[in-house]
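Reviewer 2 asked us to include a model.

Predict the structure of this chain.
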Amino acid sequence: MKHYKIVLGAVVVIAVIAMFFWVKSAFKDNYLELATNEQIDPTPTQIQSIRAIGEWEFLSISAEEMVDTVRKGFFSDDELVRIYYGTLRLGINMQSLSDDAMVIHGDTLQVTLPKVGLLDNDFIDESKTKPFYESGKWSPQTHQALYQKAHRQMLHHCLTPENLQAAQTNAQSQLQNLFHSLGYKNVTLHFK
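Predicted model (structure tokens):
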């Protein structure tokens, strides 16, 4: 009986050793390796999040325009002078960001953005409009024509190349900060 236990023990030891070598040889080419990817690829979710910003203002310009009109009369002339106030906001509508606006080239994120422009065409604040001088009776159409004249003048005086360039410079600075905070180290921005 003692001899039986020794033989049984030796068989178990040999079986365990054989199993160890079999397992080792069976899995010698299979291994698990952990690595990190330092590159962050833009995802559709990130693009949607940036689009969700909507209109992003980079420059606000307060404007004041005095406009007038004269109606010649037989005995006297009628005159209407009004002062209009408005705030023109220059920026980017992020909702027009295309699906391929963000591309990785090596370690650089390249972003193509919509051009900086006027965010809202209704920038005159009617509640602040003041009559400066008014003689005679004037129709609503004449008041509307003065409004349109003030609108055109504000656009002409405020949408200058200098103001558009200042808004684009602000956009580059703020968007660089945004993408750096998202984890991108090198960012180049282009405007359409």
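The longest helix spans residues 2-26. The CA atoms of residues 11 and 118 lie 87 Å apart. We have added this to the supplementary material.
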